[in-house]
Amino acid sequence: MRRLTGLLLFIILPLGVFAQSDDFGLDFTLEAQKKLSKQFSLSLEGEMRTRDNTKTTDRWSVGLGIDWKATKWLKASAGYSLLFDNNERISYFEGTDDEVLDGDAEAGDLKKCAKYWGTRHRFNVSLTFDKKLIGDFKFSLRERWQYTYRPEHTVSERWSYLDNAYDGKEKTYGSKGKNVLRSRLQVEYDKKGLNVTPYANVEIFNAMSLQKIRYTAGLDWKLSKQHSLGAFYRYQYVRDDDDDLEPNRHLIGVSYKFKF
Question: Measured between alpha carbons, how far is 86 from 116 in angstroms, rounded to an integer?
Fold first, then answer.
């Protein structure tokens, strides 16, 4: 029990260390799951997320997934998600820009900003290993490969911070693909007959370098055989994520799942 307490503290304490984050948002998820057999199940999930202290809708998404329970301790999954993002692309003045050379701006100053909604296509394949190691505490390790493709997008104009007006010029952002390995270690209290399951996890995103870390603590509440609710708190620490352009963020999430 002492070792378990130490592990839980190791997972949860960093939430307080990173108390000063850049942003706060909310996450709402709806999921429908259909069991096809003892081994296979399908799921359909929709998500809405906010940012800028909940003032701005950050993203809508819909995803389809399939799970295969290979053994009692091993599950394989695959899925696809369509993401609809509220983008904010900001550029900064460089030392070689004419405005900097003329003395009208300094290197590092805000240059131009484009705000637009755009799509991304995301594919993933996962393996999850789980086992009860100490009493009713279940430990799991999920390894997920994720590929995200962002199509080319053209905006009609951008806001110029120097001129305090739109520039009236088109700007094209090229297409981009990105591979990420997501490793998640989780512990949950899974007691038979208990309708509430608390859990905590830490997830690391790698793409040739450390991209970001997510610390999450929450609980799932089984209302009946078909209906369940979930709630969580998450802190996301971003180290180097040039694709999503996300800041460090606190998130409060609520979810509803229906099984049929």
Answer: 6
Parallel/antiparallel/unpaired status of strands 23-35 and 110-134:
unpaired
Strand positions, DSSP E, the chain: 23-35, 40-51, 56-69, 74-92, 110-134, 137-150, 153-155, 159-160, 165-166, 171-173, 176-189, 196-206, 210-222, 227-238, 249-259
Burial bucket for residue 71 (CB in 10 Å: 0-12, 13-18, 19+): exposed
3-state secondary structure of 5: helix
Q: How much is the pTM?
A: 0.87
Give the pair of three-digit tokens for residue 236.
């996301």
Bridge partners, residue 159, by sequence = 113, 166
Start-to-end CA distance of the chain, whole Å, equals 37
Give tens-digit pLDDT for 128-185.
Answer: 999 998 999 999 999 999 999 999 999 999 999 999 999 999 999 999 999 999 999 9
Confirm if 135 and 129 have CB atoms less than 8 A apart.
Answer: no
pLDDT, tens digit, 9 for 90 and up, residues 8-56: 455 445 544 444 547 999 999 999 999 999 999 999 999 999 999 999 9
Whether 61 and 44 have beta carbons less than 8 Å apart is answered as no
